[in-house]
Amino acid sequence: MSPFIEFEGKNVELAVASACKALNIPREQLKHEVIRFGATGIFGLVGVKKARIRVATPGIQAQAPAAPDAQIRPLQTDPPDSLPAPSQIQKPDSACHSPRSPMIADSAMLGSRVLQQLVDSVTSGAEILANCGSRQIVYTISGGEPAAIIGKRGQTLEAIQYLLNKIVNKSAEDRTRIIVDIAGYASKRRNDLHALALTCAEKACKNEKSVIVGRFNPQERKIIHLALKNDPRVKTQSKGEGYVKKLAVIPRGE
Q: For a designed S-S bond to 49, which of 29, 39, 113, 217 qualifies (C-beta 3.0 to 4.6 A apart)?
């Protein structure tokens, strides 16, 4: 019989409680080693990991455990709010280091560090590249598992981008637009929304009736608004309350 047994739980304390119950021994007598701390992931949707502990079996002489199985990767013991060192991330391009935009450079570096940590909680092997403009930073993710980062209907990528916007602009004097893309998803999404806007405009004009579509976040609504801004036949208007809203394409004569 192996001198060690492994237990899992939502966090270390629950894993310990499970071990105590299974082995019928009090908490103070339990000898255990933490293999992996639990992780709640992003918004509790992705990257969720259970805590795992290794317990010395009572009544059996415990020896130093062998190296953990290749599939068991202990998490780093850094504090939860720690961030990867700048040397561990890909540096933003030269535009971010331009003396004319030192604040953009600082924001880009902060965003790269935070984004790397968020992406690492979803997948492994991903790298971040930042491209900066005067009021915009575009982060391109390469490697890892694109499907896991994008999520169902782009919800995970949207959540990452929303959170990154909040963090980068929290202390900034001037707001910087943050865009996160992987495998060309953001570019394809913009093209799809632009095509949708044109289709809705044609339909609204043909039927002489408003067309109400989708549930879009602010950036998606902005793409549609701009696509039809110079169309003299129609106007656009957001509908509803909250972060996600519907959008109406309205004939001018209505």
A: 39
Kindly give, in sequence order, each residue whose CB lies less than 8 Å from that of residue 113, ignoring residues fewer than 6 positions away: 83, 84, 86, 89
Q: Is 88 helix (H, G, I), strand (E, B) or coil?
A: helix
Per-position DSSP letters for 218-234, written without gaps between them: HHHHHHHHHHTTT-TTE
The pLDDT value given to residue 201: 95
Judged by average pLDDT, the poorest of 53-57, 192-196, 220-224 is 53-57
Torsion, CA 134, CA 229, CA 199, CA 146, rounded to 10: 20
Place of tokens 């570096």: 109
- If we measure between CA atoms, which residue out of 196, 87, 188, 93 comes closest to residue 146? 188
Q: Is this structure's pTM higher than 0.85?
A: no
